[in-house]
Design goal:
Blueprint lengths: L1 H12 L14 H11 L5 H12 L1 H7 L8 E6 L5 H12 L4 E7 L2 H14 L4 E2 L2 E2 L2 H8 L6 E5 L9 H13 L6 E7 L4 H7 L6 H17 L8 E3 L2 E3 L4 E8 L3 E5 L4 E5 L4 E8 L3 H7 L6 E7 L5 E7 L1
Parallel strand pairs: 1-2, 1-5, 2-3, 2-4, 5-6
Antiparallel strand pairs: 6-14, 7-9, 8-9, 9-12, 10-11, 13-14
Helix pairs in contact: 2-10, 3-5, 4-5
Bound molecules: N,N-dimethyl-L-histidine (AVI).
Protein name: L-histidine N(Alpha)-methyltransferase
Organism: Olleya marilimosa
Keywords: Methyltransferase, Transferase
């Protein structure tokens, strides 16, 4: 784990266009800051998807063509705290559907918390947590011939560029069988005045979330980044529908990373690219699934039409 982190930091800071992968945002502090982001007034994504789960729950069940007497596995990739999914679990359980809920996460701790919470809140739902990498878990489930519904929510696919997203969808598709479904949450392309503030909130939580990566490098790789010498400078290109997070060096400076045994120089105004948050429409999703067995079957949107959950079927 630490070796991979070291390599990613070294590679990312050794290229002319410096970058650091956003997957490393999520240490303990980063997890807590992300929970805070999800509750920010400017961060509409979580609320919009929750709106769909809360107000269109029966619609979700109908669109997924679930049948009461056919057992299925409901598999959630990157389950988090399951707030949105609970709306669906509640109705499925109340109406007597025959299913197991399989939340998949890399963090056993996140899964334990979710399992305990569900035990008290929804005791009649059968929960089978699966710790591990998404594809390892899917591979292990592949041979069970039970129908599967995969949940991949929260616009998590948006943190992949289009090439990676398309490989991800090909892998996913290769691990599913005819009739299996994917319920995919994506943020929709919309104007800059709505998207940019979501990544540049007035309380500075997103800035802290991004700059926390420098603290993580300091802590885990014994570096001497001074986060006060960097500022959070996100962008959004409305035409392509891509938000990008950068941090910008405010001075000429050198940073030494002991674990890599290397000093990295930053000139004033030099940017480090951290994250991409891709926004979608039908055309972009269709391009991404070109080389897969998936077909788009349906789409549910929130009342503001900010966010969509697509139903894809193999
Ligand atoms: C997890 N992911 C979908 C978030 C997003 O909107 O791209 C991560 C995030 N970055 C800044 N704010 C939220």
């Amino acid at each position: 784990m630490i070796e991979q982190f070291k390599e990613a930091v070294n590679n990312g800071l050794s290229t002319p266009h410096k970058n650091l992968p956003s997957k490393y945002f999520y240490d303990k502090k980063g997890d807590a800051l992300f929970v805070k982001i999800m509750g920010l007034p400017e961060y509409y994504l979580t609320r919009a998807e929750h709106d769909i789960f809360k107000n269109q729950t029966s619609n979700i069940i109908t669109s997924l063509k679930l049948e009461k007497d056919t057992y299925f596995e409901l598999i959630e990739l990157g389950a988090g705290n399951g707030t949105k999914t609970k709306e669906l679990l509640k109705l499925l359980s109340k109406e007597g559907y025959n299913f197991d809920y399989l939340p998949v996460d890399i963090s056993q701790n996140a899964l334990d918390n979710l399992e305990n919470n569900l035990k008290t809140e929804l005791p009649f739902v059968s929960v089978k947590t699966k710790q591990g990498d998404y594809f390892e878990v899917l591979e292990s489930l592949r041979h069970s011939k039970h129908p599967k519904v995969i949940l991949f929510l929260g616009s998590n696919i948006g943190n992949m560029n289009d090439a990676i997203a398309s490989i991800f969808m090909q892998n996913l598709s290769a691990n599913l069988n005819l009739g299996d479904k994917l319920f995919l949450g994506v943020d929709l392309i919309k104007s800059e005045d709505i998207v940019l503030p979501a990544y540049n909130d007035s309380q500075g939580v997103t800035a802290a979330f991004n700059l926390n990566l420098l603290d993580r490098i300091n802590k885990e790789l014994d570096a001497d980044f001074n986060r006060n010498n960097f500022i959070h400078t996100p962008t959004y290109n409305e035409k392509e529908g891509i938000a990008k997070s950068y941090i910008t060096s405010t001075i000429n400076q050198d940073v030494h990373i002991k674990a890599i045994n290397k000093t990295f120089s930053f000139i004033k105004n030099e940017k480090i690219h951290l994250e991409i948050s891709r926004k979608y429409n039908d055309e972009i999703l269709n391009n991404i699934i070109t080389n897969t067995q998936f077909n788009i079957k349906n789409k549910l949107s929130d009342s503001n039409n900010y966010f969509a959950n697509y139903i894809l079927e193999i």
